[in-house]
Amino acid sequence: MYVGTYTNGVSKGLYQLQFNTETGELNTQKLAINIDNPSFLTYSPNRKYLYSTNGTDSGFLSSYKINNDGSLTLLTRVSSQGKGPCHISINEEGTKVAISNYGGGTVSIYPVNTNGSLSEASQVFNHNAEDKKSHAHSAQFFKDDLFVADLGRNAIYQYKLKNNNYILKSSAIVTMQGNPGPRHFSISNNGEFIYIINEYGSSITSVKRTSDSFELIDHDSTLSESYKGNNSCADIHLSKDERFLYGSNRGENSIAVFKRNLKTGMLDKIQNISVHGDWPRNFTLDPTGKFLLVANKKSHNISVFSIDTSSGKLTFLHDIKVPTPVCLLF
């Protein structure tokens, strides 16, 4: 497992750890490469290369070759075309990378070369308007679609691939009531449902694809009824079998667990469990689907939970100290 970090403290860059998929034990931490603020990570489809945002004001993204021992060799470092890049994703073919720039309010598309390196941006979408500042927070490819969560514009954008370029189809696939602040989202395997976690609203908006557009079908709080403090949601993931959905709360410092109706897509919250740390910015499920791991940025630890595959509920196992973890990648 690779761990992206912020390097404004004791962290020196991108770390590699070993995870036991039988016991949930996490250890053998070592520095994979010394580099500044590798804050979000993704693999190439063949897992020979790794890509990161470098969350600086000027904004960069980097490509790396994965060596036999798990260490990384820097291949390319290119401008993110906007301040504060915070999210990176790659398409299924491994030919294009999308970067979301929170500070700049732009989304940039990059061609991936056959040797894993990156060319300069081929397209840059500026979501800023005269009366409203954009904060592009995440983007995901799905077949010929590119979806973008824009927290500043309070919308999910949809782009369509045409002649090898992405063209804007919709600047809001559904109307978001109030200002919930869409941050990250998870798409079902068949592309029929999109689940959006809202940073400001501490909620999940459930969206269903129709014949030619989308419709809002559900809206659920991520917080315990007893929690009254401030909160900012962060990350969201479906379970491997898509029967459960998980979201992270920064403030309540919890993971919210939802049971999902496979036919209707509707959600029912069944658990809020402490992350045993502070500020869970990102989390992931291990390749077996039996464990969930949480990166707690402010408490400098990664917490490991077992997943009850029949109920979806989590049980805390243990944690390990890691400097300023903000992204986890198996």
UniProtKB/TrEMBL annotation:
Keyword Ribonucleoprotein: no
InterPro entries linked: Cycloisomerase_2, Haem_d1_sf, Lactonase_7-beta_prop, WD40/YVTN_repeat-like_dom_sf
Domain of life: Bacteria
The keyword NADP appears for this protein: no
Species of origin: Algibacter agarivorans
Keywords associated with the record: Carbohydrate metabolism, Glucose metabolism
Family membership noted in the UniProt record: Belongs to the cycloisomerase 2 family.
Protein name as it appears in the record: Lactonase family protein
